[in-house]
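Checklist before submission:
- one chain only
- standard amino acids only
- sequence pasted in full

Submission:
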Amino acid sequence: MGLAINEGKYPIDAVHSQLGFYVTHLDISLVRGTFNVFTGSLTIGSTVADVAVSIEAEMASVNTGNAARDKHILGGDFFDATNHPQMAFASTSVSETNDGYELKGDLTIKGITNTVTLAGTYNGSAVFPMDGSTHYGFSMSGTISRSAFGVSYGVPMVTDDVGLVLEAQFIEAASE
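Returned file contents:
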């Protein structure tokens, strides 16, 4: 399969990307949220095994569509964002699968780091007409146990399993 992307390091286009999550509340409905402030990069090497992804999110930028809930999530019951203002992911391996790619890496939340696995697809590339840069699109998702990161408040009212979703565009600067 392989990625048809030149070797190099590409910053994430946060304007056209979304870093999200979802949990089940009372086992009857999903509550979704996003982090509105994040950075990251995609590094392409000579093989898929040489690909690396990093993402950092500002915890204070969490947005579930409810200000009171967001304030609670930022407090000590959940993220303790005052003491742990960032969440970070750094890939440790990328491999091809029948459906796309498997991305393994270290995720740090609330000062606790665990290995997570995300399933991903490469959605292709397109030239952004506003500046001539080439954008590369990816969709990645997976599930983590929030209690493994010291975030266990409200289980089982709010599920321990948290779905992670990243819709990402990475940018290659236009040729001069």
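Reviewer check: The longest strand covers residues 112-127.
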